[in-house]
Amino acid sequence: MKGCSLSGENTKDSLLLIIWELKNQNFLIKDYCSMRMDERGIRFFDLLAVIKKNYGPIWNSKNRSWNFTGKSLDGELLTLACKYNKGTVIVTVFKE
Q1: What is the pTM of this model?
Q2: Regarding the domain delimited by 12-95, which CATH topology (the fold level of the hierarchy) does it fall under?
Q3: Alpha carbon distance 50, 69 (integer Å)
Q4: What is the predicted pLDDT for the residue at 2?
């Protein structure tokens, strides 16, 4: 898989890479996501809580991202939108 692009692809390989990298805290948070986190009062540890325990990935064909929904440390339902582009990128996060 090394050097594989898989950007925004709905493939088993891209999903497995995203899951592995999220679990190993090997991901990039886009600037847009960071800005939205600040606006929404979402902390980095909330992301980790969702990564640790979520309801499984759902493919979002409109945005071409894998979405992971789970609870923040405060019990709020959050969704992380992730893509794989030479590494896992969290594109945005929002409250449900």
Answers
A1: 0.87
A2: YaeB-like fold (3.30.2310)
A3: 7
A4: 42
